[in-house]
Write a sequence for this structure.
C-alpha cells in the first residue's frame, strides 16, 4: 500500500489530507473512508485495523484524482523526531577520506526541514556555495518502541520512502554534531509517499540513484549499508523511545557533490532527482531563499 499526503494543486492554503495511491491515481481517504484519522501519524497510531480500512477504500468505484492534479506533501508532515545516520556506506566514507566507523554516528535534523517530494529546496542566503545533496532511504516508525532487538526491528517499521538529506557543508563542518548544517528550512524532502513494509520486502536490496540536472551522480544499493535498518533501530532504542511517525534517514552512498573534482555543489536552478527501487522518486529544484524577517 502506498499512503500519501496531498492537496489539490488548485486549492490555495488547504490542509494536507490522506490518500491512497493506486497506479497513476490517488483515492481521497477523507471521502472514501471518512471514519479514518486525518493525518499519517494518527492513522499509524490507530493500528492494523485502520490500515486495513484504508486498503479497503481502494475497492469498488472510489472517486480518484490523477496524480498530475495534486500536490504531494511529505508522508509525515510533522514528525516528532528526524534522526539521520552518518557515514553509513563504505564508498561514501572512502570519498570523505575518513576511517570506517566503529559505532553508529547519529545526528538530528530539525523538523522545520521537512519538505514535500516535489517542492523547492532553498539555497540559503548565508551559504550560497556549499549546498549539497544526499540521496537516502528513509523509514517511518509505526509502533512506539524501546529496547528492540535487531531480529524484531522489522515489526516497528510502518514503511519506507525516498529522502534527500540536503546539507550545507560549511555550516555542517563548523561543529562536530552536524545538526545545524543538516537542518535548514526545506532541507528534508521526503516522499513521494509511504510504501508500507509488506510491499517493500527486504529493504536491504534496493537500488538507489541520484541525478542532478539529468547527470547521474549516485548509483548504489541499500545492501551496501554498514549498519542496516534493523541494526539502526536496535541501537537507537537502547537509548530512547522511538515514537510513531519518527523518521529515520539511513545514510547516503558515494557520489555527493562536495567529494567531486571539481566539486559538484548545487546552485539556483539545479534539479535533484532521487529514485529508489519499489518506492518511486522525488524531484526538487533549488531556489533562492526568501530571506525576509518573519516574526
Amino acid at each position: 500500500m502506498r499512503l500519501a499526503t496531498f492537496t489539490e494543486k488548485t486549492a490555495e492554503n488547504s490542509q494536507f489530507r490522506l490518500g491512497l495511491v493506486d497506479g497513476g491515481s490517488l483515492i481521497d481517504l477523507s471521502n472514501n473512508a471518512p471514519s479514518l484519522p486525518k493525518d499519517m501519524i494518527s492513522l499509524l497510531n490507530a493500528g492494523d485495523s485502520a490500515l486495513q480500512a484504508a486498503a479497503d477504500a481502494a475497492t469498488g468505484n472510489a472517486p480518484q484524482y490523477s496524480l498530475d492534479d495534486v500536490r504531494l506533501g511529505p508522508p509525515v508532515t510533522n514528525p516528532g523526531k528526524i534522526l539521520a545516520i552518518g557515514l553509513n556506506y563504505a564508498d561514501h566514507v572512502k570519498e570523505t577520506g575518513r576511517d570506517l566507523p566503529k559505532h553508529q554516528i547519529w545526528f538530528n535534523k530539525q523538523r522545520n526541514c521537512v519538505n514535500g517530494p516535489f517542492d523547492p529546496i532553498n539555497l540559503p542566503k548565508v551559504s550560497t556555495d556549499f549546498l549539497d545533496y544526499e540521496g537516502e532511504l528513509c523509514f517511518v516508525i509505526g509502533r512506539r518502541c524501546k529496547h528492540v532487538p535487531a531480529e524484531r526491528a522489522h515489526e516497528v517499521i510502518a514503511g519506507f520512502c525516498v529522502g534527500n538529506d540536503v546539507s550545507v557543508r560549511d555550516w555542517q563542518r563548523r561543529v562536530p554534531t552536524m545538526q545545524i548544517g543538516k537542518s535548514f528550512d526545506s532541507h528534508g524532502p521526503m516522499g513521494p509517499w509511504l510504501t508500507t513494509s509488506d510491499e517493500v520486502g527486504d529493504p536491504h536490496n534496493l537500488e538507489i540513484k541520484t541525478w542532478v540536472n539529468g547527470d547521474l551522480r549516485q548509483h548504489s544499493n541499500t545492501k551496501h549499508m554498514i549498519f542496516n535498518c534493523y541494526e539502526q533501530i536496535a541501537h537507537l532504542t537502547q537509548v530512547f523511545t522511538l515514537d510513531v511517525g519518527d523518521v529515520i534517514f539511513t545514510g547516503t552512498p558515494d557520489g555527493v557533490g562536495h567529494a567531486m573534482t571539481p566539486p559538484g555543489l548545487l546552485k539556483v536552478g539545479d534539479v535533484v532527482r532521487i529514485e529508489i527501487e519499489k518506492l518511486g522518486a522525488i524531484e526538487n529544484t533549488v531556489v533562492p531563499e526568501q530571506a525576509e524577517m518573519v516574526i
The mean pLDDT is 95. The first strand starts at residue 2 and ends at 8.
